TrEMBL record:
Protein name: Metallophosphoesterase
Organism from which the protein derives: Bacillus wiedmannii
Alphabetized UniProt keyword annotations: Hydrolase, Metal-binding
Methyltransferase among keywords: no
Organism superkingdom: Bacteria
Keyword Hydrolase applies: yes
Family: Belongs to the metallophosphoesterase superfamily.
One GO molecular-function entry: UDP-2,3-diacylglucosamine hydrolase activity
Amino acid sequence: MHTHHVKKEQKKSIVKIFIISFISIVMISVSLYFYATEIERKLVTVTWNEIEASTIPKEFNNKKILQFSDVHLGPEFTLKQLENLVEKMNALHPDVVVFTGDLIDKFGSYKAEREEAKGILQKIHAPLGKYAVFGNHDRGGGGSLFYKKYMEEAGFSVLVNEVQKIKVENGKYITISGLDDFLLGKPQIDSTLKHVRQQDFNMLLVHEPDVVDKVARYPVDFQMSGHSHGGQVQIPFIGPLITTKLAESYVEGMYELEGKNKPLHLYVNRGIGTTRMPVRFWSVPELSVFVLKQNSN
């Protein structure tokens, strides 16, 4: 009789543990989902890095380059969020602002807000210039006919397989190049980068980061890319759940490679918005600031 009672109590305990465990798992899952959909994806962190090179003119010492990427304007990234983002950018007082592609998530269905969004982008202040390149979302869905003119009206120089000089008053300069999107555009890597010189400090904007392995054949000092969203969803201590084409080898953050007779730095920005699903986990949206430092060594 006593044994039967003990077994009955044990069964009750097991059932109780199972119910508590199940409820705990459900609550944790709901909490994580809420965090990923309503909290993390609406955050913006600022990442600071120094870029050192002997080819940086002393006139550009401590100049700040601000990169933003992958905004994906649409239902999941609103005009109000864009306004807040631009305020945050201007508060950092950048000298140069660069955008590495994917402005609108679905070009065809984003019409009513276009003009207002352009007005907000016009408010970005950068005394030495604002530069942009095409991303795959800027090329798709009719965006090719729209994006370049739109961004130029917002005050950006859109670099499509071209090199420009960023000059200061005494004529000293650094260069900035931009390649067309590698998934849906017509990038011309050789005819563009053959114009950059070994003795100059050369920056490159290209949406897809994995292109850096081809870029390493040219005297580029610093490539800035996006596209990856940092994986958008990462498993802590493991990495991205899914990587996207041409953002598989380089997913987020700073990398140093062997360039043409000098180091080649690559920075992969995690972007601002989301695509496919309005979720981010362990991949907080970011603005990247790069402080140029002349290295006399």
